[in-house]
Every structure is written in C-alpha cells, then in structure tokens.
Amino acid sequence: MANEASSPNRFHAAQALLPQGWADNVRIDCLHGRIVSVAAGAPATPDAQPLGVVVPGLGNLHSHAFQRAMAGLTEVGGRSGDSFWSWRELMYRFLDRLGPAECQAVAEQAYMEMLESGFTRVGEFHYLHHAPDGQRYAGHAEMAARIAAAASATGLGLTLLPVFYAHSDFGGAAPLPAQRRFLHDFDGFAALLDGCRQALREVPGAVLGLAPHSLRACTPQELQALVELAPGPIHIHIAEQVREVEACLAWSGQRPVHWLLEHAPVDTRWCLVHATHLDQDEVRGIAASGAVAGLCPVTEANLGDGLFPMRDFVHHGGRFGVGSDSNVLIDAAEELRLLEYGQRLALRGRNVVSPGALSSGRWLYQQAHAGAAQALGVAAGLAVGAPADLVELDAGHPSLHGRSGDALLDSWVFAARGGAVRSVWRDGRQWVRDGRHVHRDGIAARYRTALQRILG
C-alpha cells in the first residue's frame, strides 16, 4: 500500500528533545529514512519540513496484536475467582475465530492506533502460528507474514518475535488442546524462523528475534537450544503471576527469575516481560544483567497481575520499557502515566520513580525510550544513525498550550487525553497527520468487517 504523504530529507523543529536535552531550531537531515545530521540553533530553510515540538518515537516492546479484537469483551463480573487464568481460558476460545485475513485486519487496526498515540515500533510477541485445528498452513509462516503485511500497510516499525511454545507447565507437561495453534517442536520452529526471515524482507527496518514463551512452555534443554538459535533480541514472559512463581518453586526449588539468571546467559539482548513478582536478589540480578524489564502497566492492571517493584529496580540501575501487551487500550502516554501512578499508590507519595532532578514525565519517557530501543534491537533517538522516527506534539492542545521543555512531556503524560499527538513520521515518512493515520478510513473499514466475522 503506497503512502500518500511526502518523505522529505530535511526537517526543522521549533523545539526537539535530543539525547543531550531540549534544543530550539533543530534541523534534522535524513537519507533513506535514517538521520544523517542534527544541528541545533539552525535557521529554517525552504526545503525543510516545518515541525513544532518534536520528540523521538517511542518503542512498544510487547504486543499480542490479535487481542485488540477482544478489547472490552472480558469485563463481565460474577465468575468465581476471576483472574489472569480465567481470562486466558476466554482468550483460548476466542482464537478459534481468527483466520489469516482477520489476523491481518486486527493487527492493522492495532498498529494504526499505536502510531496515532506516539509509538513508532512494536515488538510483536507472535504465537498464533497455526490453523484453528492446529494444522500448519501451507506457508509455514503464513500468520507471521500477515503481521509483517500489517506493519507494512500501517508504516509501524516491526521487531518480530516468533514464539516457541511446546508445553503447558513446568517440567515439560503435555500441552492443552486449547494451545494447539501455538505449538512447535524444535525443528518446526527453526523452519518457522526461516519463513519469518522471508516475510520480513519487504518490511523496511524490520528486526527478527525470538521468544521462548515462558519457563512453563519450554524445557531447559529447549531454552538452551533457542538461545543458540536466536537471530536477535530474546523476549520471555516471566513471573507475571504468583501461581507461576509457586509452580516454579515446586518444580525447581527456585523462583522463575532466579532460575533464569542461573541457567541462561541473560544479557542486554534479553527482555523479561512483566517480571512482576520478584524478591530483592532477583531485582538486583536483572539490573546487573543489563536485560530490559518489559512492563505493560495497562494490561497488568486489567489482568490484576500486581505491581513491579519499580523504585527498587531503578535504584539498582535497572532498564525498562513499556508495551501495550493485550491491547485492551493502546496509548503510549497512558502506559507511562499508569506506571508512575501505580507506584504512587503503592508508596503513597508523588513523583516517586525518577531518581534525579529531571521531571517525572521526561525521565519516564527517556528511560522507556532507551529501554525499548535496546529490547527491540534498534538505534533510537534524534541522533545520527537512528531511524527518522519523529513524533510531533500539538503545542496548541489545551493541555500543552504555553508549555516548553520538560513541562511539555509532563503535560502530555499526565494531563493530556486524545489529540496531543499531531503528526508521526517513521523512517522519515509521514504516517499520522493532524492526529489521524493517513490510511485510517480503509484500515478501520477492514477491521469492522473482520470483527463482524469474528464476533458473528
């Protein structure tokens, strides 16, 4: 799908957040979607695209795109002991209604909404591999190719993380019938990775990693083989639920993160998704490893997971990013807002996460931006060599009017609702104009059609 917007080679921002801080009159020169020079205090030129307030696009480090179609459909009370685990059973039943075309249409809707909210790249934790009966599609990576097509159609940067899933619980327990669409043996998964490489060839700037789903879903031997096979970033669900921690202790005598740090070469390539339930040794261990904690505050709140020990983790130098996970609500600022607010409620204070003099909004944004870039395997920031992923805030928005510098980010994160993002450029190409994706109408129409088939 061709993009109708222009792709200028030069931008001029009235204000921009550079790695070293805010600057005025910033000229950004690009070539083939990459930043080749950045100059502050530069005059505007006729060949430059004029922009107002610009920040680097934020990475969304954890998404299950297909779950966007479930948003709002699991909020019915009355079930005894409703929890993550009962939600998972509903999700399994929902899967039977998703074919390749529906999967692509739902992913396009989710990716469009990510761009409109300020996300410019997604880590797609992709485990929906097979047909509803569990059989492989003729094209082994058919569903991954649909994710790649959705990224191309919307312009969102993609780090594809095909998921290895072979067991239902610790110790290599047999998978459940409801998990049939996820399952691979090791050779089949290696073939899937090859298919994913082919699918990503036409996606500009795409990155391929992989994801052992969890310590429940793969054995120690399979995990070791996956690490050796990994072409890029490695993401894993871990310690999301107390029941998971208890089951891991029963299986191994260790908590999940303890076990992982002792038995796997966890380093800067890794993203530990959720990692909600940690003891102090695990907090220190993740921070020391250089891995990124992948936090998904909106989904974690929706599922009742619990709160990550953020202040202790930050104290030890831990790195983090945010993701939209179940996509029950897609909003970059909301993830950061809830991350801080959850800690304020737990600690009964204000501005409790930022350890230094920076404002909470700026600190959260910069840290989440750096953490997501690391976890998604890309360079980032308004700096030479990084992709030209630019988010222009609407300085005239009621919540941003009259602000400058850090107050702009604080007001976007903590005070603004819809409409604060004016335009989004990804790889130097405009995909959001006046708050709307340039292909919004067509994407929304395809989504509605798919939803009618799914829910009907």
UniProtKB/TrEMBL annotation:
Residues 53-429 form the Amidohydrolase-related domain. Its cofactor is Zn(2+). Residues 12-47 form the Formimidoylglutamate deiminase N-terminal domain. SUPFAM superfamilies: Composite domain of metallo-dependent hydrolases, Metallo-dependent hydrolases. The lineage of its organism: Bacteria, Pseudomonadati, Pseudomonadota, Gammaproteobacteria, Lysobacterales. One of its GO terms (cellular component) is cytosol. The keyword rRNA-binding does not apply. It comes from the Bacteria. Keywords: Hydrolase, Metal-binding, Zinc. Pfam families: Amidohydro_1, HutF_N. GO terms for molecular function: deaminase activity; metal ion binding. Coiled coil: none annotated. The gene is sdeB_2. This is N-formimino-L-glutamate deiminase.
